[in-house]
User: Fold this.
Amino acid sequence: MLKRSTDTIIKQVAALKNMVDAFRDYARAPRIKLSELDLNQVVREVSTLYESNPAVKIELEERPLMIMGDAALLRQVLHNLMQNAQDAVLDVDIPMIHISSRQEGRNAIVCVQDNGSGFPAELLPRAFEPYVTSKPKGTGLGLAVVKKIAEEHHGQVTLGNGEQHGARILLTLPLLEA
Assistant:
């Protein structure tokens, strides 16, 4: 009984630490360090963490999508979106996560789409608010941090549900001027 109680305490302390770290990351303004980078390369770097998952398919623009960005913060954004998609398809018979990039006008767009249950209709208008989540163990800060980082890059994040089912998140960032 002592071992079981100790294990429970250790797990709860770890969960609280993760929550405190998430609150800290949200409250702290990102220290953005902009440099010229290829957004596709950042997507490739993050996607290597998920390549063992057969549900993940990647389809990137052939040419580089050059932006002014902070690679570390953009990795954080992409990791958060990928992790959310992975969580969303846990109970799906044939899971699918599709990451794509493209140029649209003067913007680079990264799309993360899954075939999970999608966003509940009542959550969509408030999804970027801190502490709003549909996950039983989520802090509700992930998308708030994503939005904050996108805005620091003079970009935006939009979310919605796919035509059939699942979630669709678009990260739009301005391309470098020629």
Remarks:
- The beta strands are 35-38, 56-59, 66-69, 97-104, 107-114, 156-161, 167-174.
- The CA atoms of residues 83 and 113 lie 12 Å apart.
- The longest strand covers residues 97-104.
